[in-house]
Amino acid sequence: MKKTKVICIGEALIDRIKNKSNQEFTDFLGGAPANVACALRKLQIDSVFIGRIGSDEFGKKFINQFKELEVNINFLQLDDCLPTRIVKVNRDNSGDRYFSGFDTSLNTFFADEAFDKNEIKKDLKSLENLFSKTKYLVCGTIILSSSISADTINFLLSLANKFDVKIIIDLNWREVFWDFATSSSETNKKERVDLIRNLLNKAHILKLAKEEAILFFENKNPLEISERLLNRPDVIITDGANPICWLINGVQGTTEVSKSLKIIDTTGAGDAFLAGLISQLLSFDYPSNESEIQNCVKFASICGLLTCLGEGAIEQQPDYSKVNKFFGSQIL
What we know:
This protein is α/β, with parallel strands linked by helices. It is built from twelve helices and 14 strands.
């Protein structure tokens, strides 16, 4: 049986994005794993989201969005006490965003931090059936900032190994989450980096930004980074509008990134890129030569770019027709 499902695990949260004047703001559904799950569905990939959100208005909006896109949420946890997290996002004049903290008006502890493996285990038979049909599991490292959710992700990763599910990790370093979380706020940067490195050893595919590569490995060469990790994963390093460096299926190379003067908001661009890459890995049944890999990475980069042409992450994610139209024209 050919496996085609992709499970995305981790945070679903609200991006409260300030406008260019940084005075008014708009709320958008976000969170890297949730973004990837939605972007995959727009690219006709069977995706699953497993995480924890509040039983609040934002939680209801997430559920409606997931159902609209037909994302599987059978293992989504709803918290009656803790709210869906709201992240404050500021933008500079070029559309690049930076996180400035969280909305703590309702609580200082959020639903995603209470992601509980015991609730998942209540229907272990169905979960194992799901994993038996899954090709890739996608997660980030933010989930490690809470000891409860970290325990849950480690349980799910062990289940992935049991069913030969390939693990894709997007490093997605966001120090503000660690500074704020009760269980990690007392840890120093070295302790946090060491904890994340241990998770990266479980990856079969690792995506990270250039600055993350330098911070965690003091290196920006995909091959050398791969050789320092236990599973010798494929490594993809993004660098904004600069070429993408990669090591995929034993082949190393770079891919030029498509550009546009119409960038509005870069929120979720990396998540759309990752979803685009996964869709192509499935389409090619894993690319075996440089030409196929170049096409896969180019397709993914266009998914990321098109997401930047409007506000918010999920709203702007492209479907196949939009990507292929741009792929053919290369003009924006």
